[in-house]
Design a protein that fits this description.
The structure is a single chain. The chain has two domains: 137 residues, no CATH class; 46 residues, no CATH class. It is built from six helices and eight strands. The strands form two sheets. It has a five-stranded antiparallel β-sheet with strand order 4-3-2-1-5. A three-stranded mixed β-sheet has the order 6-7-8, with helices on one face. Helix 6 links the parallel strand 6 and strand 7. The longest helix has 30 residues. The radius of gyration is 19 Å and the shape is elongated.
Length: 230
């Protein structure tokens, strides 16, 4: 029985990874300019850290740690090209859990292919670059203390932060759940069981809270503290 259960978990994990790769391919193909290769995007993002800032966008309700934050940092070259870094940030537990770099031939293309999609999903506001850098740094450090790393795709976008100075921002960054403990909110492509097991090992059953989908209960969710599992 244990062997069958392990095979079932492996199949689910493979399915999640396949779904995530498909979603990522759709997102990145419709974000960056179609004529720009992945290697060219990485090279341009490194150079773009020195370009003038076009805009930084964060969700209006970014201080609510129960929300997963979309963050966009966009810079424009003197020739009009736009490079952007997109980050998916969880202030309550996982830190920078996803992201990607993108490059566009013009500001209009950036607005049509990326900005419009982001602003349709969350109400966004303009933000100072140093605040954005502080959000990303604090989320990264908090997650690292829990044993979670920045997603590799998001790491490719980090050079867009360029000369940002998070220490120059005096805005406090909220971390953890409402009770001050880490709060894990499962995403559609997370290996929720593996993350929950990790949190149980590192924090103990009463060291965190969670909100995860219930299998077999159409759209239902389960929530509580780690001690409520079983």
């Amino acid at each position: 029985m244990a062997r069958k259960g392990e095979i079932k978990r492996q199949r689910k994990a493979l399915k999640r990874r396949a779904e995530r790769r498909k979603a990522r391919a759709e997102m990145t193909s419709s974000s960056s300019s179609p004529s720009v290769s992945r290697s060219a995007i990485r090279r341009t993002i490194r150079e773009a850290g020195q370009w003038p800032i076009l805009e930084c966008l964060i969700p209006k309700e970014w201080q609510d740690t129960k929300n997963i934050l979309q963050i966009v940092v966009a810079r424009r070259s003197p020739q009009g090209q736009v490079a952007a870094g997109v980050f998916l940030v969880d202030l309550a537990c996982l830190g920078v859990k996803d992201g990607f770099p993108a490059v566009f031939s013009s500001q209009r293309e950036y607005e049509q292919r990326l900005r419009r999609r982001v602003t349709e999903r969350q109400e966004m506001i303009q933000a100072d670059l140093n605040l954005v850098a502080k959000i990303i740094r604090e989320a990264t450090d908090y997650a690292a203390r829990l044993g979670f790393r920045v997603h590799p795709d998001a790491a490719e976008a980090m050079p867009i932060l360029g000369d940002a100075n998070p220490d120059a921002c005096d805005v406090p960054i909220p971390l953890g759940g409402p009770d001050g403990k880490p709060m894990y909110i499962a995403g559609p492509y997370d290996d929720a069981q593996a993350i929950m097991n990790h949190l149980l090992r590192t924090l103990g059953p009463n060291g965190f809270s969670f909100l995860v989908p219930l299998e077999g209960v159409g759209g239902g969710v389960a929530g509580g503290s780690g001690g409520g599992m079983g």
